[in-house]
């Protein structure tokens, strides 16, 4: 007998399933419309080269949350990979996020931290002390006009296909600016990649006699055996698909950005010398190139071939994979209406990135699932 149906085998669904089975002794059925578990964090081995490729864009695990770090280490160990990103602007490569190295290279200077701060403050003075109202103003106030125009304006326009003056300031608040030469991308205490790959990690999470996984089944579209019409009201459900789709777009569709990935196997053992190279200028159509071998320097990969992926960003159409919530004003209004509908849906818990229409990093999806698991175990139909 099934005690709980979990729709979506991403990290939110997997964590809920694992905890409900192990901690609450529940029989859990996990369904996903894709042919694999792991959601967007899924990776596979490229057949030509043996290189592990993150199928839905680069996924770097990082967290400062002790409970999450302890939890994930039950299923996998992590390498000591530290993420660093570079960006190409007008034919020159600079370190990201913007740090003293970027500033001194850009201005052909040898400024000290204090001198760099003073220069940026002067170049940010056009706001006249006013609080930034949008991403454009936030960018200028963070790094000053010249650095903003070089490294943020074009990249953001490509990434969001929206004038930065129409985007919320919060999008780049998570991008640090450092007045020293530290060019680590993340500030978290723990960081690394799963030693044996993402799939081995996820398989260990569902390796439990009380967990059954069914792949290739869409919960919202018949003829699946486990669908909304056959399940809701009969068995408690955790739904981690898109909340608007669950309610058949009742108050309108929420907008998302999607990504297109163009993959190539190139005949060199090292294409760009680093895992992620951003392209800041708008005359280059893609936002970045990923070279997957660099995520695992400890592995014995071929020395004459490499896998690269160019990433293009655009608004998602009805049939595209939703990746990043756009969160425009209409979206926020619709979201509160969906939240009301979700609260009234007896026996169904909405969670994860799609279910809550929130950008969640992996550690945030896991933390949220760990917090909500008791509430899920108490669901009644
Ligand atoms: P998902 O992983 O999206 O899982 C949802 C699952 O539900 C999917 O497998 C989907 O097929 C399934 N589903 C949806 N609808 C249905 C339906 N109707 N029926 C059946 N199944 C359904 N996080 C980091 O920590 N570090 C990173 O570097 C990082 N990089 C990212 C890069 C990109 C391009 C993206 C998009 C995300 C990135 N993330 C990163 C975020 C990470 O992917 C999420 O934290 C994680 O996916 C959240 O898990 P989830 O379970 O909420 O959602
Ligand atoms: N960003 C930028 N230039 C860069 C990298 C990031 O302008 O070289 C901005 C851009 O608006 C982006 C945001 O910072 O959307 C967050 O970047 P991050 O790398 O965290 O996220 P992602 O690229 O996955 O959206």
Keywords:
381 residues, alpha/beta, Rossmann fold, 3 domains, 7-stranded mixed beta sheet, 5-stranded parallel beta sheet, 12 helices, 30% helix, binds flavin-adenine dinucleotide, binds uridine-5'-diphosphate
The profile of the biggest β sheet is: 7 strands, mixed
Annotated CATH homologous superfamily of the largest domain: NAD(P)-binding Rossmann-like Domain
Radius of gyration: 22 Å
In DSSP terms (H or I, runs of 4 or more residues), the helix count works out at 12
- Unreliable segments of 5+ consecutive residues: none
Strand tally is 16
Domains (count):
3
Tell me, briefly, the overall form.
Answer: globular
CATH architecture heading of the largest domain: 3-Layer(aba) Sandwich
The rounded distance between the terminal residues' Cα atoms is 15 Å
Averaging pLDDT over every residue, what do you get?
95
The side-by-side strand order for the widest beta sheet comes to 7-6-12-13-14-11-15
How much helix is in the residues? 25-40%
H/E element order: EHEEEEHEEHHHHEHEHEHEEEEEHEHH
Multimer state:
single chain
Structural class: alpha/beta
Beta-strand portion reads: 15-25%
CATH topology of the largest domain: Rossmann fold
EC number: 5.4.99.9
Protein name: UDP-galactopyranose mutase
InterPro entries: UDP-GALP_mutase, UDP-GalPyranose_mutase_C
GO molecular function: flavin adenine dinucleotide binding; UDP-galactopyranose mutase activity
């Amino acid at each position: 007998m099934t005690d709980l149906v979990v729709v979506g085998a991403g990290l939110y669904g997997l964590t809920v399933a694992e905890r409900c089975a192990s901690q609450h002794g529940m029989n859990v059925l996990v369904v996903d419309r894709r042919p694999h578990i792991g959601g967007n964090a899924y990776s596979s081995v490229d057949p030509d080269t043996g290189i592990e490729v993150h199928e839905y864009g680069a996924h770097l695990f990082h967290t400062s949350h002790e409970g999450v770090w302890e939890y994930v280490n039950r299923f996998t160990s992590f390498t000591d990979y530290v993420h660093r990103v570079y960006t190409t602007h007008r034919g020159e490569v600079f370190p990201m996020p913007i740090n003293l190295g970027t500033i001194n290279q850009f201005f052909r200077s040898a400024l000290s931290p204090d001198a760099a701060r003073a220069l940026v403050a002067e170049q940010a003075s056009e706001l006249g002390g006013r609080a930034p109202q949008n991403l454009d103003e936030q960018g200028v106030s963070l790094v000053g006009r010249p650095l903003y125009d070089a490294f943020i304006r074009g990249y953001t326009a490509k990434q969001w296909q929206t004038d930065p003056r129409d985007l919320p300031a919060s999008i780049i608040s998570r991008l640090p600016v450092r007045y020293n030469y530290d060019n680590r991308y993340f500030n978290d205490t723990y960081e690394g990649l799963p030693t044996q790959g993402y799939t081995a990690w996820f398989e260990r999470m569902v390796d439990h006699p009380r967990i059954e996984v069914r792949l290739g089944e869409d919960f919202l579209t018949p003829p699946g055996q486990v669908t909304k019409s056959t399940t809701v009201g009969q068995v408690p459900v955790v739904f981690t698909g898109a909340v608007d789709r669950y309610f058949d777009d009742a108050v309108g569709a929420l907008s998302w950005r999607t990504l297109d990935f163009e993959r190539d196997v190139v005949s060199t053992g090292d294409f760009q010398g680093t895992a992620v190279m951003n392209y800041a200028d708008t005359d280059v159509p893609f936002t970045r190139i990923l070279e997957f071998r660099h995520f695992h320097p400890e592995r014995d990969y071929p020395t004459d071939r490499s896998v690269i992926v160019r990433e293009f960003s655009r608004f998602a159409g009805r049939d595209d994979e939703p990746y990043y919530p756009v969160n425009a004003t209409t979206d926020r209004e619709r979201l509160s209406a969906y939240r009301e509908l979700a609260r009234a849906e007896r026996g169904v818990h909405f969670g994860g990135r799609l279910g809550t229409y929130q950008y969640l990093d992996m550690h945030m999806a896991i933390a949220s699932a760990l917090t909500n698991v008791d509430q899920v175990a108490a669901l009644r139909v």
